[in-house]
Amino acid sequence: MYEILIVDDHTHLVDSMASALPWEAMGIAAVHKAYSGEEALELLHYHAIDLIVTDIQMTGMSGLELASIVKDKWTKIKSVILTGHDEFQYAQEAIRQGICNYLLKPVSNDELESTIRALIGDLQLEGEALVSQQKLADLFRDSLPKLRESLLQELLAGKLPASSRLRDKLKLYELPFDEAAPFLMLCMRIEEDFVGTDVYSASLLEYAVTNIADEIFSPRFEIWHCRDDYGYVVFLIQPKQPSEGDAKEWMEETERLARLVQHQIKRFLRIKVSVVMSHWRAFPLEVPAAYHDLLSLFTDYIGFQTESFFHDMQERNVEEIRPLSELYASPTFMQLLEVEQWDAAAAKMKRVFEELEQRGNRTREHVFEAYVTIMQAFSFYVHKKGKSFHDIYGREAEKMLKLDAGWSIEPLREWSFRSLEQLQTYSGSLSNSLRHDLINRIVRFVNEQVKDVTLQSAADHVHLHPVYVSNLFKNETGDNFSNYVLRVRMDAALRLLKQKETKISWIAQEVGYQKPQYFIKLFKTHYGMTPQEYKNSLP
Description:
- The structure is a single chain.
- By secondary structure, this protein is of the alpha/beta class.
- The chain has 4 domains: 2-128, Rossmann fold (3-Layer(aba) Sandwich); 176-310, 2-Layer Sandwich (Alpha-Beta Plaits), CATH 3.30.70; 325-423; 433-537, Homeodomain-like (Arc Repressor Mutant, subunit A, Orthogonal Bundle).
- It has helices spanning 11-20, 23-26, 37-46, 63-73, 88-96, 109-130, 133-156, 163-172, 199-217, 247-269, 287-302, 325-328, 333-338, 342-356, 364-384, 389-393, 396-400, 409-448, 455-461, 466-477, 481-497, 504-510, 516-527, 531-537, and strands spanning 2-7, 28-34, 51-55, 78-83, 101-104, 182-190, 221-227, 233-239, 273-277, 281-282, 309-311.
- The strands form 2 sheets. Strands 6, 7, 8, 9, 10 and 11 form a 6-stranded mixed beta sheet that branches. A 5-stranded parallel beta sheet has the order 2-1-3-4-5, with helices on both faces.
- Helix 14 (342-356) runs antiparallel to helix 18.
């Protein structure tokens, strides 16, 4: 769907044209109106306009001047000139300014509709050319390394897509990893100080490291890598022909090649790396667990030692105490509450308690860990809103602020969901109050700054984006911001006109119009008489 802007200093012509054509059936989603070239330019900054229909002669900025500016700043916009002047020089100038069509007044609705439909056809053809299959294919292929890395980062973070969706992505990204085959993971720490190194040089070094690993492993293994949030380079490895050897033989071969990668990086790149290596794990379900195990090896066994190689040969017991991975998986409770994603927060809470129900996670320590983390997120949200727990939870706040390590899973579950619902209820009432307060501040500003007010200045006053202010004003009041400003200015003009000694040119400037003729035209449209006629009618 497209958006069109109609520009004419005859307000009744703009309003008539805006309601005369079947815009939605033509593919036009929004019709914007401007009553001067200056107002048109302001609207162009805040809306994605595709087509402009403008009169050629207007008070102040002409249609040709407007078209010239549009041609320089918004090259994709199609322009149509409407004029009653059929002199050849106007047509020549319109062509030079990049006008797509030049129509003589009076223009029938059928003729205007036919012209606009043709231009929409041109826009569609241009769009199709822009997203042609070849261009998309080239762009996609260029993006493949980044897409592969991003997918592996998601798996490391525990964001496991549905099996069918993962298979589709692996195929699309040309990653021949088999869900039925196990994998090994390598985690590599580059032990160089890159302070002062530019991003380009650091990226080249990382590319060289992964390229060495690819060269060494690729004859017999599939290899897939990414850089994690801690600067480690993580590799996933699967044999290309698993039937050619058993698990032990493949493990020994992988370790031999991993040590060779470590040696070759030092030899050719003159840098030291430490490597930790996992045992065989199930793909993709155990990717997050394998990753966290390797991170633990760095902290628990390697520490600050350099050029280390550690092979995790010990199988993990499923009954051993483990951290609650869902509790800390991104997005965290704190992140979800910050953007008020209540349904997502409730879904995450459900997953946390499902993990707590597992046999190895039902300890009092795990329950207390979950309580502290959830309480921390609630505290962050409440204090960010400038409130205390008593403001939102009342008497129950005292219980919440007593850390109860004796809670079992079920009472904690009940408390967590009930407290989350109370926060959501508070958020809804707060949002309504904040919107009402914002509208009141904007209205006061318009009335106080009637001479110089613009959408931008009103938005600056409340520290928000102009497009948001425009939409908020429309949704909350049912009126356009520009229409409201016009009414305020006309009301102010009416009051000033009652002072008979004042000049109309002075009143025009006082209510925000530099050109008296434009003010007179707006006043007559609004009240059905000129300012002078109104003055003369006063007793």
